[in-house]
Amino acid sequence: MRKQLYIVVILLLGCFADVAFASEPAADSSKVKVGFAYDLNFDMQFDNREFYKSAYTSSMTIFGTRLTPSVGVALEQKNGTRHRLMAGIDILKNFGAANENSELFKEMTLYYNVQKQLGKTGFEMVAGVFPRRFAEGSYSQAFYSDSLRFYDNNLEGLLLKFSRPKAHFEIGCDWMGMFDTYSRERFQIFSAGEGQVLSFMSIGYAASLYHFSCSGVSDGVVDNALVNLYMRFDLASKANLQTLSVRLGWLQALQNDRAYVGHYVFPGGAEVVMEVQKWNVGVKNDMFIGKNMMPYYNTIDNAGYKYGSLLYMGSPFYRVWDDARDGVGLADRLEIYYAPKFGSPYLDLKVSAVFHFDGEKYCGCRQMVSLNFNLEELLRGRR
User: Is the pLDDT at 127 greater than 90, yes or no?
Assistant: First the structure.
């Protein structure tokens, strides 16, 4: 698996070099504009989870705020290519927690970013430790849960993005764990893309290959691949609504616990996402019908550690069953929200009530408030 990763990374870097620097004349300092670069992202999340009827997750309240400032150097060439070399810090405060430095300052961000326009094709690369928001693909919550997106805010690796007027594509690598006595070697190669085929219809995909390896005390390796193919129908303009969309997709996993199972299993299922919004008030329903997408969630390794959310980063409701049943189950997430518009793309506020069902019973409710200020969106509008 390591050799395969190295090959993929080499190919990605080769692709970048080919795209970014092919037919590029030698740099002329007189044609390069150097300046000061800065960025700032503020995020506050309130998520009160009342799951006393759920076997998949516990009741809890997530309430905290994050600030990620960064500064650096920006270089802009006469041909429009933009380079940025940035350094920053990820500051996270869980409300009510002690103000210990180990909690407050999560990690450094250090990354290089280049953007280049090739005719109608836009190219962007980010390398280093950078905010997860750079990845703009449409990923189901089977890939990443709300909790992970908030608490694991940064990617460590490489991301390549390509955009066309009616299509976009990205591929990246996130290295999440280095082999140590108690730390497993973990990395994920992920990709997503979507293209418009009709004025109201798009087709797309999201995919990931996750390598969950061993540590000094834990044996075993798990390969976890997940693919999501979908069609999206956007009908808002035909119905005089802010949003009216239907997304029909299929989730397919390929998983192999080499130490404790020794062969691949293939859980999968259908996913339907429907959303309607008018006057900034919306209703969104995510429904999954299929088999348990996390069959090894409760597996205990030889050191006594549970795989759990280390192996499966998506919403735990995709487990469908929490016992040994292998049949088809249903998970449903109904969200009613208010998302006022402030006439700016850099400020988002959303107030939601989310209701979870597992096909047999009501599982619980979440009351959520999210506020995000993204300076990058404001700066992008000035370019």
Answer: yes
